[in-house]
Amino acid sequence: MKTFPKDFLWGASTSAYQVEGGWDQDGKEPSVQDIREPFPNTTDFKVSVDHYNRYKEDIQLFKELGLKAYRFSIAWTRVLPYGKVNEAGLKFYDDLINDLIANDIQPIPTVFHFDLPASLHEKGGWGNRDTIDAFVDYCKLLFDRYGDRVTYWQTINEQNMLVFAGRVLDGGKASWRSIFQGNHHMLVAQAKAMKVYHEGNYGGKIGPAPNIACVYPKSEKPEDMLAAEYMSAFRNWLFLDAAVYGVYNHMAMRILKAIDAVPEITESDRLVMKENTADFIAFNYYNSMTVSAPAAIGSEQSKDQQSGFSIAGFFKSEKNEHLKTTEFANWPIDPTGLRVTANQIYDRYRLPLLITENGLGQEDTLTEDGKIHDHYRIDYLAAHIEQMRLSIEDGVEFLGYCPWSAIDLISTHEGFRKRYGFVYVNRDDFDLKDLSRHKKDSFFWFQNVIKNNGLE
Fold first, then answer.
1. d(CA 182, CA 157)
2. What's the farthest any 2 CA atoms get from each other in the chain?
3. Contact present, 256 and 242 (Cβ < 8 Å)
4. Which end of the chain, N or C, is less surrounded by CB atoms within 10 Å?
C-alpha cells in the first residue's frame, strides 16, 4: 500500500475576509466584501471569528491539532490600503507568519482571495487594465516582505469561480465579454506576478489555486461525452492551461467565440503569459460535475461558487443520480471524483499538486458539556483522504492536503449557519456570544490522521 510521503503537508485553510474580522482596524481599507450587502439572513464580515485579534490563541489550537501547514490569505486592503503601504497591516502578517513558524507550522499564503480593495472596484476592478499593475505592485511588496519565510505561494484563489459565480464585475450583471476581459486581466496579472517572483529568486514556488472538478457525461451518448469535454475545458483547463502553459485552451476559446466573450489580448499579454508559468498547482475540490448535450437553454450564471451552469449548444448541467448531496446547496458528494480530478490534472500538467480546500459545510451543535459531534464531517474527509491516497498510489505527486477549514468562519453565501472548521466558534449570525473556541470530534480525528501520517 502506497503511503503518504514523510514530508507530506497536513494542513488546513482559511481566508482573510472570512476569518479575520477587524474590518476597520489599523488602517485597513474596505474590500468588496465589506461594502456589499450580506446575503439574506446572514452576517457581515466585520467581526467573523476575530482571528485578527486572537490569532495566537488559534495558532496554539492549530499546533495541538498537529498541522504541518496553514493555508491563509493576505488581505490586500490591510497591507496596501488605497495604494499606500501600511506598516501595521504588514506587521500583522509578519507576526502571524513568525508565530506559525515558531510552532512548526509552514505558512502557505494566498495573495488574493475574493477581496479586491473597494477603491480599485470603484475604478472598474479587474475590468480595468490598471488593476494588473496594482496587483503586481502588491505582490512584490509581499514577496519582498515575507519571501524569506514562505516556500509555497498561491496567486489567485478560485479565479474560475469568481468568473462563473458572477463576482468579478457588477455582481454578475456585466456581459460575458466584460467578465472574460476582467478574467484575462487576472491571467496577465498572475503571469506578471510569477515573473516578479521568479526573477526575484525568493527561493520558493508559486502557482494558481483554481477550483477544479472532473466532469462526467450524463449518459454513454457520444454527444454527452463531448459536452463533458467542453465543460472541462471551459471550467477547468482554460485557467490551468493559462497558468501552466501560458496559452488559452482551444476548446474554451471555441466557447468564448460562440458567446461573444473573446477578450482583447495584446501581443505583450501573450508573451508574458507564455514566458511566466506555475511551479506547482494548488486546487480546491468539493464536488464533481455532470453534463448532457446540447444545452437547450441560454447561458446562465451559477448561483454560487460550486453550482453547475449551462452554455447553449455546448453543455447543460445535470444531477448525478449516483451521488448523495450536501445539506447546504445540494452539492454532490464524490470522493472518487477527487481521485479522478487529481489524475486528470497530473496527467495533463505533470506538476506537484496541493489540495487547498476540501470539506463539508454543515450546521453543528454545541452540547451542554462543550462537545461537537460532527461524525458527518469525519466521514466526508476520511473518504476523500482515502481517494487522495489512492491517487498517490496511481502515481500522482501530492505536496499536501489543507481542507476547508481550520476553524469555523463565515460562509460567503450561508453565513455562520454553515460551518466547516475543526474548531467550533461560539457565535451565530446575529449574536457574537463569547467567540469561545471548542474542539470538535473531527479535531481529535484529524489530529490522529496527522499523527499517523494518514495510515489510520
1. 15
2. 64
3. no
4. N
Q: Which three cell numbers stand for residue 157?
A: 484563489
Query: Is residue 60 within a helix (H) or strand (E), and if so which, with residue range?
Result: helix 51-65
| Whole-Å CA distances, 165 to 206, 388, 446 | 25, 27, 31
Give the residues across from 216 on adjacent strands: 290
In DSSP notation, 76-91 reads HHHHSGGGS--HHHHH
β-pair type (106-112, 316-317): unpaired
Nearest to 405 by CA among 84, 93, 65: 65
State the Cα–Cα distance between residues 246 and 438, nearest whole angstrom.
45
Q: How far apart are CA 341 and CA 215, in angstroms?
A: 9
Contacts of 373 (CB under 8 A, 6+ apart): 365, 367, 440, 441
Residues with a catalytic annotation lie at: 357
- Per-residue model confidence as pLDDT tens for the chain (456 residues): 568 999 999 999 999 999 999 999 999 999 999 999 888 899 999 999 999 999 999 999 999 999 999 999 999 999 999 999 999 999 999 999 999 999 999 999 999 999 999 999 999 999 999 999 999 999 999 999 999 999 999 999 999 999 987 644 455 577 899 999 999 999 999 999 999 999 999 999 999 999 999 999 999 999 999 999 999 999 999 999 999 999 999 999 999 999 999 999 999 999 999 999 999 999 999 999 999 987 554 455 555 555 667 888 999 999 999 999 998 878 999 999 999 999 999 999 999 999 999 999 999 999 998 899 999 999 999 999 999 999 999 999 999 999 999 999 999 889 999 999 999 999 999 999 999 999 999 999 999 999 999 987
Burial of 147 (0-12, 13-18, 19+ CB in 10 A): middle
Q: What are phi and psi of 360, to 5 degrees?
A: -120, 120
Q: d(Cα 418, Cα 85) in Å, to the nearest integer? A: 35
**Cα–Cα distance for residue pair 149/97, rounded to 1 Å:** 8
Q: Where are the alpha helices (DSSP H) in 84-203?
A: 87-102, 118-121, 130-146, 159-164, 176-200
The Cα 105–Cα 71 span in angstroms is 10
Question: How many of the other CB atoms lie within 10 Å of CB of 149?
Answer: 16
Peptide bond into 175 cis (omega under 30): no
Contact 4, 389 (CB under 8 A): yes
Q: What is the DSSP string of 324-386?
A: -B-TTTT-B--HHHHHHHHHHHHHHH---EEEEE----B-----TTS----HHHHHHHHHHHH
Tell me how many degrees the CA angle 152-156-158 measures, rounded to the nearest 5: 115
